[in-house]
């Protein structure tokens, strides 16, 4: 499919990297394409970033039929721009689309479209340390019809946002609250899909935890409320003695691409990594025995995020003396060196844009 390109005639003033924060500033252009039953995907275009016009009756507004992705483009020391594992993101988008009964996209075409878009907006890729260009592809159901049945029309967009750290605290440890009441997802539901509804369902718990000074909540499973799942925007890892444990993928948590990369790096380094079920009770026991020493989250936005304090009900677990844990720092350094092109990429994860 041909991509029509219409460039803006009034490029925006760029925000200083130090004032970017996360997800508030957008570049000059975006990619859009549409799907309907008769024509399949069509009308691929790169156009100036701006508001889109939709009927208020579109399915997405009423029934949350939506999927999204998150990946990043990085500026390398030798002046290139590269993406991190984009194929994985579009594969996951297709898995989410299948679950949300929306059409799959052509992965190679989407990567080409994304490369073109990033190339056009290349000056927006931040130059300073720790900053990158966040890429947000998403699909929305656009049939204007209040009937609660599957959509016959979908819109796919990619928008770009230059970003700094996801948490205001940067790489400093975050405090996490184990959510004892609300649940985010259940097996057979949409937990493994990256869909807006999962996030909408988590806002209240997130807000209540924030009011108590916590950055995010750690979800427990939706059936017995005892197995650890994931944090609002990250997967989680625990250092228990000589074992690094992360909850296994059982359909209710997001199969994070950073999670997958961390597991591959740890195995490459010879660590014992277990993807298994783990209860909050096991964590508390291990903490009492002095074996639970470190915890961190992994995610595209959050990168590697050390956890300094974990609270379950009224029990507090202080990890790595509330400082950045040794393994968290080592992983952060290794992963970001690959992402920013400062080190060899022995895994072949990066894809050059220009
Ligand atoms: N879990 C949730 C709920 C997320 O929103 C994210 C962020 O994308 C992750 C985990 C981490 O996934 P990834 O590493 O692919 O960004
Ligand atoms: C990401 O890390 O890409 C995410 O999607 C997290 C998001 C909820 C900001």
Shape: globular
> N-to-C SSE series?
EEEHEEEHHEEEHHEEEEHEHEEEHE
Q: Radius of gyration over alpha carbons? A: 21 Å
Cα distance, first to last residue?
21 Å
SSE diagram, text form:
Blueprint: E1 4-5, E2 29-36, E3 40-48, H1 59-63, E4 66-68, E5 71-75, E6 81-84, H2 86-99, H3 107-120, E7 132-141, E8 153-163, E9 174-178, H4 196-200, H5 203-211, E10 216-220, E11 228-231, E12 235-240, E13 243-246, H6 257-268, E14 272-275, H7 280-288, E15 292-299, E16 303-312, E17 315-318, H8 326-339, E18 350-352
Parallel strand pairs: 1-3, 9-10, 9-16, 13-14
Antiparallel strand pairs: 2-3, 2-8, 4-7, 5-6, 5-7, 6-18, 7-8, 10-11, 12-13, 12-15, 15-16, 16-17
2-OXO-4-methylpentanoic acid (COI) binds next to loops.
Descriptive report:
There is one protein chain. This protein has helices spanning 59-63, 86-99, 107-120, 196-200, 203-211, 257-268, 280-288, 326-339, and strands at 4-5, 29-36, 40-48, 66-68, 71-75, 81-84, 132-141, 153-163, 174-178, 216-220, 228-231, 235-240, 243-246, 272-275, 292-299, 303-312, 315-318, 350-352. The chain folds into two domains: 4-163, D-amino Acid Aminotransferase, Chain A, domain 1 (2-Layer Sandwich), CATH 3.30.470.10; 174-339, Alpha-Beta Barrel (D-amino Acid Aminotransferase, Chain A, domain 2). The protein is α+β, with helices and mostly antiparallel strands. The two termini are 21 Å apart. β12 and β13 (243-246) form a beta hairpin. Strands 1, 2, 3, 4, 5, 6, 7, 8 and 18 form a nine-stranded mixed beta sheet that branches. Strands 9, 10, 11, 12, 13, 14, 15, 16 and 17 form a nine-stranded mixed beta sheet that branches. 2-OXO-4-methylpentanoic acid binds at residues 70, 233, 299-301.
């Amino acid at each position: 499919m041909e991509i029509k390109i219409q460039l803006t005639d009034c490029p925006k003033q760029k925000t200083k990297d130090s004032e970017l924060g996360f997800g508030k500033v957008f570049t000059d252009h975006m990619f859009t394409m549409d799907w309907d039953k008769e024509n399949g995907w069509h009308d691929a275009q790169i156009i100036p970033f701006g508001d889109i016009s939709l009927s208020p009756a579109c399915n997405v507004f009423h029934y949350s039929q939506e999927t999204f992705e998150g990946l990043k483009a990085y500026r390398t020391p030798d002046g290139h721009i590269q993406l991190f594992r984009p194929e994985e993101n579009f594969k996951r988008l297709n898995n989410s689309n299948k679950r949300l009964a929306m059409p799959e996209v052509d992965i190679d075409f989407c990567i080409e479209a994304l490369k073109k878009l990033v190339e056009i907006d290349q000056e927006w890729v931040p130059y300073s340390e720790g900053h990158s260009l966040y890429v947000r592809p998403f699909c929305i159901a656009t049939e204007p019809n209040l009937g609660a049945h599957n959509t016959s029309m979908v819109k796919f967009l990619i928008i770009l946002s230059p970003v700094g750290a996801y948490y205001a605290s940067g790489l400093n440890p975050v405090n996490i609250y184990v959510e004892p009441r609300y649940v985010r997802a259940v097996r057979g539901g949409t937990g493994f899909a990256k869909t807006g509804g999962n996030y909408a369902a988590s806002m209240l718990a997130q807000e209540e935890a924030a009011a108590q000074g916590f950055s995010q909540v750690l979800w427990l499973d939706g059936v017995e409320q005892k197995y650890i799942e994931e944090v609002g925007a990250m997967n989680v890892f625990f250092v228990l003695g000589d074992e690094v444990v992360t909850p296994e993928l059982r359909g209710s948590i997001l199969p994070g691409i950073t999670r997958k990369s961390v597991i591959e790096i740890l195995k490459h380094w010879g660590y014992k990594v277990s993807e298994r079920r783990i209860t909050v009770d096991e964590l508390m026991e291990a903490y009492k025995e002095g074996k639970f020493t470190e915890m961190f989250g992994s995610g595209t936005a959050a990168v590697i995020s050390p956890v300094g304090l974990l609270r379950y009900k009224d029990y507090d677990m202080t990890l790595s003396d509330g400082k950045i844990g040794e393994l968290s720092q080592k992983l952060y350094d290794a992963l970001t060196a690959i992402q920013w092109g400062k080190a060899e990429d022995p895994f072949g994860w990066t894809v050059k844009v220009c």
